[in-house]
Design goal:
Layout lengths: L2 H33 L4 E7 L5 E7 L22 H9 L6 H7 L3 E3 L6 H6 L1 H7 L5 E3 L1 H15 L4 H26 L2 H15 L6
Parallel strand pairs: 3-4
Antiparallel strand pairs: 1-2
Length: 205
């Protein structure tokens, strides 16, 4: 990560924190009343092929002792009603500003993978994770909704994993490597703007 990209991440994270903290001050009591504790979901992800970190999100699913792998149709019943709203609006990702400030994430980059997939595909993720993982990125914008549709049809964890490995891992990696080849501050700003355009409510009339 370049000094310019890191400085951009820190400045933007601090500015957004001024907006995010009041939102969290409203969301957290609502979530506590709606589905109780824990309010946050902490997940191990990989920053580099060797270096893990703890990813912070607002909890959107009922807790379970068996929570391995990516989320597919097999976990759909565990998504809470508040969690559906959080996921649709991507408000569940607000705590990742802390990950940005800590240097675990950038605003733009590949989504941070689970350790199991990095260990299963070391050569592929060795290339992808030359870029700092991000909150959003080219693969997120281009492929995320298609990935959700593919995984939604999975009936169990094994089928979710098979679909993810066959259809999602290579296609997202290809897009992440395209980003890596062309990354610059203007490209990052464009990806952030496109992400905001998808998440923020549209004005009517």
């Amino acid at each position: 990560m370049t000094v310019t990209k890191r400085l951009f991440d820190v400045v933007l994270a601090l500015l957004l924190a001024l907006l995010v903290l009041p939102v969290l001050a409203l969301l957290l009591p609502w979530l506590w009343l709606a589905h109780g504790r824990p309010l946050f979901y902490l997940s191990e992800r990989m920053k580099t092929p060797e270096q893990p970190f703890t990813l912070w999100k607002l909890r959107s699913m009922a807790p379970s002792d068996d929570n391995a792998g990516v989320s597919g149709g097999d976990k759909a019943a565990r998504v809470t009603k508040p969690g559906l709203f959080l996921r649709k609006t991507r408000l569940d990702e607000l705590p990742q500003l802390w990950n940005v400030l800590c240097g675990d994430l950038s605003f733009v980059g590949p989504r941070p993978p689970l350790r199991e997939y990095v260990e299963r595909f070391p050569a592929l993720y060795g290339r992808v994770l030359r870029s700092r993982p991000g909150i959003t990125g080219l693969a997120t914008l281009v492929y995320h909704r298609h990935e959700e549709r593919l995984l939604a049809g999975a009936r169990d964890a094994a089928e979710t994993d098979a679909i993810y490995v066959r259809a999602c891992v290579p296609r997202k990696a290809r897009l992440d490597l395209i980003y890596q080849e062309h990354r610059n501050l203007c490209f990052d700003l464009w990806l952030i703007a496109r992400t905001a355009g998808r998440v923020l409510p549209k004005r009517r009339g």
